[in-house]
Amino acid sequence: MKTVITSEDKSFFRLNEIIAYKSLIKHLSLRDLKVRYKQTWLGFSWSIIRPLVNSIIFGALSLLINKENSISSNFITVTSVVIFWQLLSSVITDVSNSLVANSNILTKVYFPKIILPISSITISLIDFSIAFVIFIITNIFVVGLPPWQIVLLPLIIIYALFFSLSIGLFFATASVKFRDVKFLLPFLMQIAFYSIPVFIPTSKFLSLNIPSILKDIYFLNPFVGIINAFKYCLFGVYEGPPFNYLVINLVTILILSILSIRYFLKFEKSFADYI
Amino acid sequence: MSEIAIKVENLGKKYHLKHQQTDAEDSLVRSLFKGTKNLLRSHSKNAAEEFWALQAINFEIKKGDRVGIVGRNGAGKSTLLKILSRIVKPTTGRIEYEGRMASLLEVGTGFHGDLSGRENIFLNGSILGMTKTEIEKQFDEIVAFSEVEQFLDTPVKRYSSGMYVRLAFAVAAHLNPEILIVDEVLAVGDAAFQKKCIGKMNDISKAGDKTILFVSHSMQAVQKLCNTGIYLSKGKLMEHGSIDSIINRYLHSGEQSQSIYQLQKPDSATQGYAETVYIESEKGQPLMEIPVGDNWRVRITINLTQDVEHFIGGMGIVSALDQPIRTTWTKPLNIKKGNYELIFTNNDLMLTTGTYKIVIGLSSNERTFHYDDSTVSLNISDAGDTANNNRIVNTQSGLILNPMPYEFNQLN
To answer: CB–CB of B119 and A24 under 8 A?
Structure first.
């Protein structure tokens, strides 16, 4: 096997190399997992406590706003969104931090850098799985079996992960040079949270007496589409955005992903110089 | 055996000094201000000061060679290793190499304090590029080599630094790559373990055409391990040849700034201070490494800003393990302000090879006004020209090598 090192800037997406390093992905994920709740008293319960508390708070808000719905349906809806949002936001945050957090490895040994963002999503996925299983069981007891659309769920999750990963990848690359990201990101995530249908469902938002341009902007936000698609899989009711907006969302996400992957690859070889 | 393992052509690495120093100012906002284009473009187009850490490096390394890379701090040794290990990319040039390469630029890369020894073996192994089966196959050997069996399930943050280093080196030593790159890691750990490491690296290189690149400041270690060498100075390749000629050239190069130490001025230099310390041969020639058995001297330049009563200048030698070996000082004198030179010559104590700390102190009326124990070091080496020294030197003989007078009488 021959290796050539050149002064070429650009690196390429090398799937076979990532596969060759799959045990690194596994051990980095395991490390994060094992270390995460070391020296905590509640340990893994934290994976449930956070979404639970959020669900209670936003469920209560939802009760105030959607008085026509029953208490249980309010809480179930809000909880599903909270759990899913937790997945998206923690993937974005963890991926964004993954390069800087592992700078000690990055500057001492060679490996395809994309390994770091990829392995950083494991924790979020496990957290999500735990919370989701609990949610689904509760849902079955309170409401009944989910509709047939549940089979679409894996597709939606993959779509959402792809989106969050590419956003995270952009911030991760930027944060190698600009630590501003660390301060900017929580702030952006908070804004994003209030822009998605958590306790104000899309149907309610549309019935508000506001300029139609605001409704356009609302639908152009890819998060809205993703959250509603998720709700559609769980409850069988689709609240929008309409089809043409969905296409725009899809194109937006694709363009953003391509740009952020290119940005990442462009600087991958220089990370150790800048971090 | 004459197959080429690594081929380096016109290699260069440029850093932007100013750019790196003003990193903090380079905020995201400013960059956005300049236009988003800049975010996507190379960040360093307009940087002012350029610095070539490496320039126009060409060499070829044959399969099975054990190459010592020598040069003083800042010569570009680490940069070269980092480029070879693909951690940073070169600015110019091209490298080709054959086979799997593993680099050990730091002991215990990615070790996590909260994980157990066992977990860290797997984590570290996979970071270094081993597959799961490779690690499993070597696991017992790694544990045996590291001598930490008992503590395998203890978090490594509870390890002593020696245990930590042993475990980390053990993983790396069992990597089994075709090319192994090692940077200075042997500077840690006790003498016995260092010996074991060198031994292991020797085994690795002998067992089937393994190529090793080894950076160390210890000429002793380099000479033991390597058969060829590369001598770098200020980013340029000075010589590539047999290890003996490389070490000889390095030790006798004019580049002796490691034999000159600028001391830091004390905060309140009311009476004066020691400025510079020179480590020299008996004849006043600067020496980075003193051949074992040779006499040497320490020359201290002193600047007194006022007249000093009851002045004493002193110097101490401290071993690498912080054991004071000897302290010597001048008779008290009343002296006028001005510049002075104080020379202590060592012509009676024969210290063994290794690095020693030199402590400098100046006092007036029994009150110390300048004291420095962290700047100057003294290297005694058995490498290089050892014509006048045919005694067997090893660390087991103790710190002091002076022979004792003896009588050897036959009794009826």
So the answer is: no
Tens digit of pLDDT at every position of chain B (412 positions): 468 889 999 999 988 765 444 444 455 555 555 555 545 554 444 545 788 889 999 999 998 888 999 887 778 888 899 999 889 999 999 999 988 888 888 777 888 888 999 999 999 989 888 888 889 999 999 999 888 889 999 998 898 877 888 888 888 888 878 888 888 766 566 667 777 777 888 887 777 678 889 887 777 778 888 889 999 988 899 899 998 888 878 776 655 446 788 888 887 767 888 988 988 888 888 787 788 888 899 999 999 988 999 999 999 998 877 788 999 999 999 999 889 999 999 988 888 877 788 999 999 988 888 998 878 888 887 654 444 444 445 556 778 888 889 999 999 8
Contacts of B91 in chain A (CB under 8 A): 7
Measured in residues, chain A has a length of 275
From chain A, which residues contact B within 8 Å (Cβ)?
Answer: 1-9, 21, 23-24, 26-28, 30-31, 34-35, 38-39, 102, 104-111, 174, 177-178, 180-181, 184, 262-263, 266, 269-270, 272-274
Interchain contact B16–A (C-beta under 8 A) = no
ipTM of the complex model: 0.85
Q: Is B366 helix (H, G, I), strand (E, B) or coil?
A: coil
Q: How far is the alpha carbon of A268 from chain B, nearest alpha carbon, in Å?
A: 10
CA nearest to A272 within chain B = B88
User: Distance between CA atoms of B181 and B303, rounded to whole angstroms?
Assistant: 45
Residue from B378, B120, B233, B71 nearest A28 by CA: B120
For residue B137 the two structure tokens come to: 């196959």
Asked if A275 and A107 touch (Cβ cutoff 8 Å), the reply is yes
CA-based nearest distance B21→chain A, Å: 11
Bridge partners (DSSP) of residue B69 are: B215, B230
Phi-psi region of A40 (alpha: psi -120 to 50; beta: other; left: phi over 0): beta
